[in-house]
Amino acid sequence: MNRIRNIYYGLIFIFTVPGILSVNAAETDVLPVESQAMGKKIHNLVILPDTYTNDLHNFPVVYILHGAGGDYTTMLNRIPELEEYADQYGFILICPDGGQFGWYLDSPVLPRSQYETYISSELISAVDATYRTDTTARAITGLSMGGHGALYLAIKHPALFMATGSMSGGVDITGFIDQWHIGEVTGIEYESNPALMQFNVVDLICTLEPDQHKIIIHCGTEDFFFEANQRLHIKMLGCSIPHEYRTGPGAHDYGYWRQAIREQLMFFSDSFD
Fold first, then answer.
1. Crossing angle (nearest 10°) for helices 82-89 and 254-272
2. Cβ–Cβ < 8 Å for 48, 29
3. Cα separation of 219 and 144, whole Å?
């Protein structure tokens, strides 16, 4: 099993984490970050390319957000090819823990669910302080809840990311207020409540400046979020926001996402170039 480092500021402890698949990349780190916003420590998986140790330049970074019910280990366990892609593209890949149902937003009712602030401020600052990152080549993507999160964070914090992706994203949560703890984390009980618009990607997307990001969106035609992604695509066309929208046979599962993440990382590589 590959060596995994548990990194704190000023201290490095070497240990082996059971349950994380062995990797081919040079190193896989677990980066714990103390969240002042939530008053707790959060773990994040970091995949370093095999050139990281010997090549002293700064590396592009891609944040990959897990879906509902997942944690920081989910993406690598379910898509082990991520280690190969880190090597192939020379990316640092960051797999944050976004809480099982945090939706990557700052909950107005749950003080320990402030994942917008955590990702956009605390985690990115910790990653940039710990690794040799190219802050001009930073991208974010995710699947399902994480697809919502990637677009939501890019909309709310446009200066942070050069490129953004979403895979089967829950981009219109108005029809799912009673599912996946959405009502609980937003504090909104009814989908007709206009306050829900502040958290809803479809309602927020036109606040992005055209050409502000390179954007790629994937969704399978058999996915229960397909109609929501269609609405997002049409709205982006109406707002003249350039983007790539890729659909095809596929459901809401890792069979589709394993192909989609490969295409998204290729898109990010071209965007950085």
1. 10
2. yes
3. 10
> DSSP letter at 223?
S
* 46-56 residue pLDDT tens: 999 999 988 88
CB 251 within 8 A of CB 45: no
CATH 3.40.109.10 fits 4-272, yes or no: no
Instruction: Please report which helix (H) or strand (E) contains residue 153, including its range.
Output: helix 145-156
Backbone angles phi, psi at 104, to 5 degrees: 55, 35
Whole-model pTM: value is 0.89
> Is the Cβ–Cβ distance between 204 and 155 less than 8 Å?
yes
Average pLDDT over residues 104-113: 92
**Other C-beta atoms within 10 Å of 3: how many?**
12
For residue 177, how many other CB atoms are within 10 A of its CB? 18
Per domain, the residue ranges of the chain are 4-272
**173 band by pLDDT with thresholds 50, 70 and 90:** confident
CA distances from 3 to 22, 48, 72 (A): 9, 12, 17
The rounded distance, in Å, linking the Cα atoms of 208 and 195 is 20
Average pLDDT value over all residues in the chain: 88
- Return the amino acid letter for 255: G
> What's the pLDDT score for residue 182?
81
In the predicted model, what is the mean pLDDT of residues 194-218?
90
Number of other CB atoms surrounding residue 159 within 10 Å = 7
- The closest of 114, 116, 163 to 271, measured between CA atoms, is 163
What's the whole-number mean pLDDT along residues 21-30? Answer: 64
d(CA 116, CA 13): 28
Q: How far is the CA of 13 from the CAs of 18, 20, 96, 124, 128, in angstroms?
A: 16, 17, 20, 21, 19
